[in-house]
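Figure 2 data, in text form.
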Amino acid sequence: MNSLTTKLSEHFALAEFVRSSTAQRLGIDNMPDAEAIENMRHLCTGKCGCM
């Protein structure tokens, strides 16, 4: 299971991407699956080929 304290890079934590007052208010599970987390990690570290 992934923790909200999971670091995606030196500067970003998973919590920064999933925190949402709307999701909380509506009871929406905003936690991404393992593949999405890995994609976010690549995005945050510049390894996605998009930079």
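Caption note: The chain has a mean pLDDT of 89.
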